[in-house]
Design a protein that fits this description.
The chain is mainly alpha-helical and 460 residues long. The chain has 19 helices and 2 strands.
């Protein structure tokens, strides 16, 4: 005798299948993985032996875990004095996981232990690493892991040597601090084991220089770095992605250095007490850090208004695609600049070199900028309604969280719990990207089979 399924059981199976199908979407897998890492990190940081000071609230633990996984660097307590060694190691692991990407690390583990991955996992990694093709995803992910370890190892060696030879730190402390800074800088996290970030190294070009190097390399984006390693002798064969990323990143680094030096060279609170060569080192360091690293060698609260404005702009732009940096990405900005240039010249199609920019790429870039600006505006309004701080302080904090930068004008620890939760949500959005989040929420794409009549609107 065959038993017929009841309507209730059938409906339950349909709901389960729908939920499984929604979760299997690559973008949603990435969202779920990052959310899981944040939840685990929050739980570990709530443990009594994770801290040296008094008890910490769940909101503050959640804020710290989110900041670490999103490689932001905003903190409500001092990393080196509040958290125990266990707590700091948890933060360091969350930074590494967030920087390389949970799906990337999962694939690395699968390759090491199982020697194979399924298509669903590879699709999820492609979303996280922004890989154009799934064909060589295994090789790409392995090279990402190796390259990250090599860069972090090189940075660790230089910082450890400097701490051992120029500072009165013991061997164990020097090695630990070097490890912490190497992981934090390469992943553009901005967490520091020292109070006041890197202000104690304000006159040390070795520390500032190697941290700047790690931040720039990590922020370029893995596709760009891998192509540079493969084709460094033949620049003419570089892809448009690599050319645009390098050109815009270099331009912003130079313009930022000049802008910060002009604004701060005679300012007593920042650069004025240093000789001109050291001022330029600080200017370049500050310029690089504003594009999502979050370290500071001079107090952010002491910056001139012009410097604060430049910092806001750079934090919003961010770094390269598929790297450890946040923001709307330099490729998005570069693409839109070429579109605007084509419009100014009266060209019907935008092009970069001898390559035409795809229409869907232009649409995606516009969507990223529009969504990002909307997110910043909404969260700025909400946090201003919840706090007594000025517009300048709040929008700086909001852009820093959205761009996963970690710089602050000194208000992070003073935020009320509801505002901290909003900043944590903003860091989560900023790490994954507004477009990725929108795709994950929609999870369905529809192809229109009908083309409506065209009508032009007045623009401007």
């Amino acid at each position: 005798m065959a038993w017929a399924a009841s309507p209730d059981s059938t409906a339950h199976e349909v709901n389960v299948n729908r939920a499984a199908g929604a979760l299997s979407h690559p973008a949603r897998l990435v969202l779920a993985a990052f959310a899981t890492a944040i939840a685990i990190g929050t739980t570990l940081l709530m443990l009594p032996f994770a801290r040296l000071a008094d008890s910490i609230s769940m909101v503050d633990a959640l804020f710290t875990a989110t900041s670490a996984v999103s490689v932001t660097g905003l903190t409500v307590v001092e990393t080196g004095t509040h958290w125990s060694l266990f707590g700091q190691i948890v933060i360091l692991l969350l930074i590494q996981v967030g920087g390389l990407g949970i799906m990337t690390l999962a694939t690395l583990f699968a390759l090491m232990f199982f020697r194979r991955t399924n298509l669903r996992t590879r699709q999820a990694v492609a979303v996280e690493t922004k890989s154009i093709s799934l064909a060589d995803l295994r090789g790409i992910v392995v090279r990402i892991g190796i390259f990250a370890l090599l860069v972090e190892g090189a940075v660790f060696s230089v910082i450890a040597w400097r701490l051992l030879t120029a500072y009165s730190e013991g061997l164990t402390r020097s090695l630990y601090d070097a490890l912490f800074l190497s992981v934090s800088s390469f992943n553009n996290a901005g967490f520091s084991p020292y109070p006041a970030s890197l202000e104690r190294f304000v006159a040390d070009p070795w520390i500032l220089g190697v941290v700047t190097f790690a931040v720039i390399i990590g922020g370029l984006g893995f596709p760009v770095v891998l192509e540079l390693l493969r084709r460094w002798r033949t620049p003419r064969m570089w892809s448009v992605l690599t050319r645009v990323t390098l050109a815009i990143s270099g331009l912003l680094l130079v313009l930022g250095s000049v802008a910060f030096w002009v604004a701060e060279n005679d300012h007593e609170g920042t650069f004025a007490s240093f000789p001109t060569p050291q001022q330029w080192v600080l200017a370049m360091f500050t310029s690089a850090m504003t594009r999502t690293a979050g370290f500071n060698a001079v107090p952010e609260v002491a910056l001139q208004p012009e410097s604060v404005f430049v910092t806001n702009v750079f934090m919003f732009i961010g770094g390269g695609s598929a790297g450890t940096a946040g923001g709307i990405k330099v490729t998005t900005m570069g693409l839109l600049l070429f579109v605007v240039w084509a419009e100014i010249r009266g060209r019907s199609e935008a092009a970069i070199g001898n390559r035409r920019i795809a229409v869907d790429g232009q649409r995606q870039a516009l969507s990223v900028v529009t969504l990002s600006a909307g997110v910043v505006a909404i969260f700025t309004f909400a946090i201003m309604a919840l706090t007594p701080f000025t517009f300048e302080q709040v929008i700086f904090e909001v852009i820093s969280a959205f761009g996963t930068v970690g710089l602050s004008l000194g208000i992070t620890a003073e935020l009320a719990d509801p505002a901290k939760v909003l900043i944590a949500i903003l860091m989560f959005i900023g790490r994954l990207g507004p477009l990725t989040l929108a795709v994950a929420l929609a999870a369905r794409s529809k192809v229109s089979l009908v083309r409506l009549p065209e009508e032009r609107m007045i623009v401007g």
